[in-house]
Design a protein that fits this description.
Blueprint lengths: L2 H44 L3 H29 L5 H21 L3 H13 L6 H8 L1 H14 L1
């Protein structure tokens, strides 16, 4: 198996995991933004001084939107082109990684940042391969998934 297959596999798994976590973060940030924006607008009806707070809230919302947009763009940029079979296999593999992380009590954000680090700065043995080597079930799944890419 080529080294390129392992890089593509790590990028595909990482991009899928990042996409799943970004979806949840985006929803939470959107809800909080709407609540704070509504609260800020309501407070401006009480006193004109509350406009200062509303300006701060709007600034934070704009910054958050920019950062989320950059994160979504980076996740799409790092994701390799995949066939339908590869997408399905990657999705199943990420499901299994999430179940294993719950079992060994690794927080999803720890996995998220480790995978993101590996995507941005590839190493000889990325985090995903370490997880796969630790579990015989995951290892055989990872090998089968890597064969789809190379």
């Amino acid at each position: 198996m080529k080294a390129d297959a392992h890089i593509k596999t790590s990028r595909a798994v990482g991009a899928e995991f990042v996409r799943r976590k970004l979806t949840g973060v985006t929803v939470i940030i959107a809800i909080l933004s709407a609540v704070f924006l509504g609260l800020g607008i309501w407070l401006t009806t009480i006193s004109s001084w509350w406009w200062i707070l509303l300006i701060v809230i709007i600034t934070w919302i704009i910054l958050g939107t920019i950062l989320l947009t950059i994160a979504w763009f980076a996740a799409r940029l790092l994701r390799p082109t995949m066939t339908a079979d590869q997408r399905h296999a990657v999705s199943d593999f990420v499901d299994k990684i999430e179940r294993v992380s719950e079992t060994v009590q690794i927080t999803p954000f720890m996995i998220f940042f480790r995978i993101l680090k590996d995507m941005l700065r590839p190493t000889e043995k990325p985090f995903i391969r370490q997880i796969a080597a630790d579990s015989t079930s995951l290892h055989s799944d990872y090998i089968a998934l890597a064969r789809l890419f190379g």
